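Newbie here. two chains, one complex. Structure please?
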Amino acid sequence: MKIAGALCIALALAVAGLWVSHGATLATIEEEPIEVKSVDDFGDETVTTEWKKPDHFPVTGFHIGLDRAAPPIGGLFLLGLGLIVFSVIRGKKKTAEG
Amino acid sequence: MKLLKHLLLAAALLAPVASFAGQADASDLKGQFKFTSNAPKEDIFGTADGSAQLTVDLNDLTTLKGTITVPVASMKTGNEVRDEHMQSPDWLDAKGHPNITFEVISVTASPATEKDGFKESTLQVKGKFTLRGVTTELTAPATLKWKDDGKAKITTQFTLKLADYKVVGKNGVVGSKVGESIKCEATLTGSLK
């Protein structure tokens, strides 16, 4: 039980690490702006923005912001903590029972 | 009858020429608006579609009149949930106020300069800017470029204060995750014919 709890906390930390490596942004970047340059009829360089799904982020390829990372981080951390606490309480009870 | 047909045909053929020489109809200008919010917790960049229904006598640019329209539903920031929030009643209220508009009231224009095959003038455009049903007066600098064949381009940059339009969002978000001021820029191109 303790090992499962530690594993959950480690997984939560891994997701947190992934979020940090993706830039630690609040919102997930589902599409990112790509600048498309061209020369218009007046000889000016114009920059038009097109939206593209990002595919260059570490591990997942797609981007993870805090809006998507927070639920698994929180859930896994609480589950891990719960399992460890439950395991400690059960261990103490067993010791008391003798 | 034949003479009438010829007259109608001649009128139809000459109408665009007359229009361009005098009251040009610039109803076909379209382009992209870009907006940027810089806040302590988050920077947001977005785009929107824009179109302009304008009329102008190119010999006197101060006659420029018309409306520039940006549909709120076309605004995009790269995050679907954030876009939904942006268009919700707490923010820009896309259902209640589907368009952001700028209606030109008056224009001051620098003398047109002629460059490589086109003319250019710097404008100060004063108008009524309506966002979320709130209208304020706004003066924005703009550059108008046009060619004799009717091709035209308008570029502008201006800044909006969300509080001026009673856009407050959820408690405390403006000023932390969303900037109190939004920088906007637009390029509209099309034909004056």
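Moderator note: Chain A has a mean pLDDT of 93. The first helix of chain A runs from residue 2 to 21. Thread marked as resolved.
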